[in-house]
Amino acid sequence: MKKIACVFVVLMVVFSFSACSGGISGDEAKSHINGFLEKIEAEDYEAAEEFLHPERPGDLQEFFEALESEENVDFSSINIEKYTGFKSSMYDSSVGGSTYSLTMKIAASDKIIRMEIEIVKNDNGYGIYNLDIDFD
What we know:
With 136 residues, the chain is of the alpha+beta class. The protein has helices at residues 2-20, 26-41, 45-49, 60-71, and strands at 79-92, 97-108, 111-122, 125-135.
């Protein structure tokens, strides 16, 4: 009986470590977001769209040009002022994979903007799944 219990415990430990290998690290998320924001600054929207998750494509040129027009903001110079929060999940059933959300305050055109970006890694790909921008 002790051998069976020991084998069971070993298997549980092995499976718990293997489940942790598929998450998104904070450094990985920040690097992905920085690459995305660099493309937005350069107005290279086609390249920026490659940072989006395959399940959530979008027309970034239309999106950012509308924001610039409606909010009188220029995204050609984006500075991350500070990271204000993060949320990480090794597995989220709503996306069928791991998630990492990063909330930050960015400066663009002398405006402070709250931005939250959620990155998803699942069987269908890796990339930005949600982008939320709030003007203070």
